[in-house]
Model the fold of this input.
Amino acid sequence: MTILKKIKNGLIVSCQAMEDEPLYSSYIMAKMAKAAESGGAVAIRANGYDDIKAIKAEVNLPVIGLIKKKYPGYKPYITPTIDEVDKVIQAGADIVAIDATKLIKPGDITTAEFFNTIKRKYPEMLVMADISTYEEGVKAYKLGFDLVSTTLAGYTDYSRKSDQPDFELIQRLAEDIKIPLIAEGRIWTPEQAVKAIELGAYAVVVGTAITRPHEITKYFVEHIKKGGDDLFRNKMASY
Done:
């Protein structure tokens, strides 16, 4: 079975922790990935050479690899240069995810130029386009990307901001491109994941709601506080 067939209609779990987060550790991320595999995940999304390598050794699932790195003067940070692509592939990733927005990459190159460089060097490698708008998704499809993901929707200066998944974007792209459309971004509940699939998403990525306990705790705390504040206001209004 091909990698793309393995992930169809499934849950991809993003196992990532940044240096300033409590669970920052390749060992911990590998165990997170193992737990996700035990729960039925169809693939793992992972950040960094060490994490990708550790996760590949721990689980028998496809890994979507990326390296987050910021370069002075440039906004793209998801696998922004061929150096990061090389490391992702060397670590054993099955799919490499890159920033495929309209933003110029380090070295003053466009997404099209970057993608063509990757495919010339690694013609058999599956490349995922992390995009933020409908136009970027369609362009990535036309360029020849193997998958498109809504990863950056709401995270670029010019894309639509929302606390919810961008279901409109998911539906439009699923209808208009002929390659797998992966739904990612602000998916917090099983109901939202199901809706994304119903709208045509090929698979769904969930990260924070599963693998970042400090953010999950914050989410609960904020909702409890808001509920308490609303209750207080309602009681005051009744006097």
Q: What stands out?
A: The radius of gyration is 19 Å. Residues 29 and 150 are 23 Å apart (CA to CA).
